[in-house]
Structures are given as C-alpha cells and as structure tokens.
Amino acid sequence: MPVIYHDKFYAALLLKNDQFTHLAFFNDIFVGAICSRIEKDETTGELKLYIMTLAVLAPYRRFGIGKKLLDMATEQIKNKKIPVKEIYLNVQTSNETAIEFYKKMGFVITREQKDYYKNIEPPHAYFLSKNIQ
Q1: In a domain, 1, yes or no
Q2: Is residue 54, in this structure, part of any structural domain at all?
Q3: pLDDT at residue 133, as a whole number
Q4: Cα–Cα distance for residue pair 72/119, rounded to 1 Å
Q5: What is the CATH number of the domain that holds 17?
Q6: pTM value > 0.85
Q7: What confidence category does residue 17 fall into, taking pLDDT thresholds of 50, 70 and 90?
C-alpha cells in the first residue's frame, strides 16, 4: 500500500532550495510528483540523488508520468552540472508495483533493511539504485 502525503508536504518541498521537486498535472488535476535531494556518500564522498518520493495517482499510472518525472529529476541534475553518479531510493518490500516500475527504469535492489519504516506495515524496505553516468 502506498504512503499517502498531504498537499502541505508537497507545498513545503517546493519552497526548499536544497531539494528538487517536480509536479505533474492533467487538466489542472495534480496527478503526480517526484521529490529528491542531493546527498553525499559518507564512505566515498560521491554525490547521489536520493528520491524521497515518487507518486502518481492510480488512475493516471501506465501513461508514462512516473518515467517522465524520473527523467525530469535526472535531467535537472545534468543541466545543473551536478556530478551525481547514482540515483537511489527505498521502497516498502510489499510494494510490488513500485518495485516492478523501478526495475523497468533500470534500478536494481542493492539491499534489504528490516524494520526500516516506523509507522507502516510491513516495516521492511528494499534499497534500489541506478548508475546515471
């Protein structure tokens, strides 16, 4: 089951300078969003793009909106010449739809983290990543 965010969550993200947020609309209806930020790998020092959330309303899925949002985030990094080599994210292990989507987009599961989420069941997460260079 996907996590549900309130509109105020997205409004607050749009105001932050250290994050990248793109919204998708269809006929003035808010149908999707991607929220991401640049993070520095503690071990290697390399910059990574962390996808905090990527969501598309169920009736608007399978029209390429999620792919377009992901492409927009990647292009924004390239256009700003930020030396990001990897995109990564986490997803609930039971969210088979999201896992299938990310695999189609070239992501691979890199690890599983037990009890990652505090307020949702099951609390386990997969971490997925994709090289972009």
Answers
A1: no
A2: yes
A3: 77
A4: 30
A5: 3.40.630.30
A6: no
A7: low
